[in-house]
Design goal:
The protein is mainly beta.
């Protein structure tokens, strides 16, 4: 399905969008290519750029969600799954169908870990990897140096880095527990959710939100669960608006994206996503919400303020992880 046009907006908004596109012109000129192409660096804070992992195509792609243009493609064979972007613009992707991760700057560099890397996050200058096939957390410096692993009592699924950057919170396969890992000391403790935790992310207010395979949302403050509410059928992945007021949660069972307020935690809207919604990201300017539709090979873009779907962008086979290009560190 081709990209949809924008709804009617004022001349002031059009002028803002024009400035946004102009600010990203460094990406628009001469960056489309393979892993040998040069990455020009992180975008301006108004950037509408996201990276998306294309599992079926064995690529990661850089996409402008305003123009609908795929700016760059990088070959990352091995089932690119979850993806993250460091503050300096470095892209890291877990190659779930292999035993490697890829670190993308000017070129793609591959680091062999063994197992089946599933999720990746950045803690300062370190990559934290949920290695689903090896029941451990792997730690890798951004230069590719592999550090000593941290072993867990079950296979990890998804992970989140605490605001202090010292700890990783991890969901475990076949367990109702969350593993809480001190990344420097390599110590581990476990916190029970009582259900089936899936993905997790720290809200701007410091509380931890955990989606559940049963469709619930759990909210933790410190190590204490303070709230559980029903959301849908199979709450999947989540993202917060930069202002911290709203969150978006995809539901893989209902093919929906739910919108929630953060304080109080309450479901306020639901939007259909054709196909199979997986990861969701909010652009750093807070203007656009981007959902990866795995089955249709598209990114579905919503207006963050009105919650209206504004366009669908064809990106390639099996989009799964999606991450907004951050503000330059």
């Amino acid at each position: 399905m081709r990209c949809r046009g924008l709804p009617f907006v004022s001349s002031r908004v059009w002028s803002v969008l024009a400035a946004v596109v102009a600010s990203t012109s460094v990406f628009l000129a001469g960056t489309t290519g393979t892993s040998s192409a040069e990455l020009r660096g992180p975008a301006h804070s108004a950037s509408p750029l996201v990276w998306v992992a294309l599992e079926d195509d064995g690529q990661v792609a850089l996409v402008n969600v305003v123009t609908g243009q795929v700016i760059r493609r990088v070959s990352t064979p091995g089932g690119p799954h979850n993806i993250t972007v460091a503050g300096d613009g470095t892209v890291v992707v877990a190659l779930w169908a292999s035993d490697r991760i890829a670190i993308v700057r000017r070129h793609a560099r591959f680091v062999t870990l063994g197992g089946a890397p599933h999720d990746v996050k950045i803690s300062r200058r370190m990559i934290v990897v949920a290695n689903q096939g090896a029941a451990r957390i792997d730690r890798v410096r951004l230069d590719g140096t592999v550090l000593s692993p941290i072993h867990l009592r079950a296979n990890p699924h998804d992970l989140a880095i605490a605001p202090d950057g010292e700890r990783a919170w991890v969901t475990l396969e076949g367990s109702d527990d969350l593993a809480v890992i001190h990344l420097r000391d390599r110590t581990v403790r476990y916190v029970s959710t009582g259900q089936r935790p899936h993905d997790l992310l720290f809200a701007p207010d410091g509380r931890l939100w955990v989606t559940d395979w049963t469709g619930a949302l759990h909210v933790f403050r410190g190590g204490t669960r303070v709230l559980t509410i029903p959301v849908g059928d199979e709450a999947h992945h989540l993202a917060f608006a930069p202002n911290g007021e709203e969150a978006w949660i995809t539901d893989h069972g209902l093919d929906r994206a739910f919108v929630l307020t953060v304080r109080p935690v309450d479901r306020i809207d639901a939007r259909a996503v054709p196909g199979s919604p997986h990861h969701v990201a909010v652009t750093v300017n807070g203007r656009w919400v981007v959902v990866a539709d795995h089955d249709n090979g598209t990114l579905v873009v919503f207006d963050a303020e009105t919650h209206r779907r504004v366009r669908i962008i064809e990106v390639g086979g099996g989009p799964h992880g999606v991450w907004a290009v951050p503000v330059k560190a």
